[in-house]
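re the bet — no i am not wrong, look at it urself. input seq straight from the record:
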Amino acid sequence: MAGIILFHVLMLLLGLGIATRIVPAKRVGSVLGYIHNTIGITTPSRPQLRAIALVWIGSVIVIVDGCLALLVLITKLSNTG
């Protein structure tokens, strides 16, 4: 449980750091470039970097929460049968 809370706190702090421009644009751009090249999609332009980074952070939070919710649902269903 502590790991889940720590994950959310760190992701929200990272998002806050990107939104308030504490995290440098060069670092955000290099990370996004790596992620986009790995997946095989085009990298965002400089003006779009921060918005796309926030979209990625939100997506990761939703995916992790969804996987955890499904895990809890599946384990509850298997225990009732």
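see?? Residues 13 and 30 are 19 Å apart (CA to CA). told u. also Residues 2-80 form one domain. so pay up
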